[in-house]
Amino acid sequence: MISGLLLSQNLSKVPLHPASIKYLKLGHPWITEDSFTKRFPQKDFFLIGIDEKNRQEIALLINDHEHKNVKARLWSLNKDEWRNGLNFQEDLVQRISNALAKRSSLKLLTERENVYLINAESDLLPGLQVAIFKDQLLIQYYALFWKKIEPEVLPILFQQIKIHFPELNIQDTWIQERNFNQDKKIRSLNGSIQKDFIMVEFGLNYHLRFNDYYDIGIYTDMSAIRKQMTPYLQKGNSLLNLFCYTGAFSLYGLSLGLENVVSVDLSPKYLTWLDENLSHNPSLDRTHHTSICLSCEKALVKLIADKNEFDSIICDPPSASSDGQSTSSAFKAYEKLLPMLLEVLSSKGTLLVFLNTHTISWNKFEEKLNQIISTTKYANQVNIGKRFKLQEDCSPLKNFHEGDYLKGFLIDFKNSIKR
Ligand SMILES: C[S@@+](CC[C@H](N)C(=O)[O-])C[C@H]1O[C@@H](n2cnc3c(N)ncnc32)[C@H](O)[C@@H]1O
């Protein structure tokens, strides 16, 4: 049982790199691989991280020596807790309960069936993500140690879900281990091989597929942002959805009454899924929608040549994007994309550009956008405004930049004048 784990164990003390200690104290919960982590014992579940100089105890960590680069994750900085014999099981129950109580108070299930119930580090449950999709629970381990204590963790999780979400009737639970190897399959506790089903987000039906492909058909970290986009989408009549995937932003735009929605993606498969999603929503007017199966760069060249303009544009490239021939980072790709985006943005329009990586900071992304804009004929005419961040059920932990991976900026023309 995990309840006795701490008490029965003689905890190993491991010296930490001075930089790790500094960052732990600032709220960063990871110990990444360095010369110090090479000396961590492999068999221990918990470790006490210490300062080598003065032998002071700094943090209670969970060991993850099998992980490629995150060798341990913070459990507690409160020395009293581990010195007085922390009951890990009780602590786990409390943390899971806190995470679920927070989601329950947000009342998100009233407007969408896809919600993150536990968001790893930001819920002090490092490397553990849990999301519900209608009646299917998806558990994702980003840290290997969760797998080791799975038989103890799952009953706690199910019991707490019953307490905080009595309305949920979970039919199956899927477990996916992320980032450990190339095997992207997920396993179901019921032994199901695959699951296809329809799920509702903001009144719209989406066809989801568990265990068919790596992605299941909807990005739930974008759900709150879709809602936040509502007033901007409603200001105009048209939407260009670039890197549209299965079309969640496009369907949402159509549901708000937009009469010209254009979706662009390089993948014919995802555009077929988009098409299916449209058929699952007979209330939407399909004649107001067009799909373009091209790289966004090529699609923009064509849209400019045809003198198209849009009142809203959403550009959400994957961190590394391919046009079928070459691969480039989204950060670099904006050098070509952004000038063209300004070209097809109407004078009163709003453009939302995203970057999907923690490796580039908000300031660096904004600087890059400013620098690109300064090279266009629209220099001095453009505002870079509001930031669109991960929020609601998936808001990141403060000072944990790896968790703050999604960055969006709203761009428009000053005083709605474009010359
Ligand atoms: C991060 S997903 C976008 C998610 C979408 N914003 C949503 O909320 O549903 C990225 C998409 O970009 C597409 N893609 C990748 N490279 C591309 C390119 N060069 N041109 C067009 N689409 C591309 C992929 O097929 C994938 O569907």
Describe the fold and architecture.
It is built from 13 helices and 21 strands. The strands form 5 sheets. The protein has a 7-stranded mixed beta sheet with strand order 15-14-13-16-19-21-20, with helices on both faces. The mean pLDDT is 93. α4 packs parallel to α6 (150-164), α11 runs parallel beside α12 (330-344) and α12 packs across α13. It has 3 domains: 2-85, Archaeosine Trna-guanine Transglycosylase, Chain: A, domain 4 (Roll); 89-204, RNA methyltransferase domain (HRMD) like (Transcription Regulator spoIIAA); 220-416, Vaccinia Virus protein VP39 (Rossmann fold), CATH 3.40.50.150. It is globular. By secondary structure, it is α/β, with parallel strands linked by helices. The chain has helices spanning 5-8, 18-26, 79-83, 88-106, 145-148, 150-164, 223-228, 230-235, 248-255, 268-279, 296-305, 330-344, 362-374; strands at residues 12-16, 30-32, 46-51, 57-63, 70-76, 114-119, 128-133, 136-141, 172-177, 187-188, 195-201, 204-210, 238-242, 260-265, 289-293, 310-315, 320-322, 327-329, 345-356, 382-389, 406-413. The longest helix is centred in the N-terminal third of the chain and has 19 residues, at 88-106. Bound molecules: S-adenosylmethionine. The site of S-adenosylmethionine has 19 residues, from α9, β14 and β17.
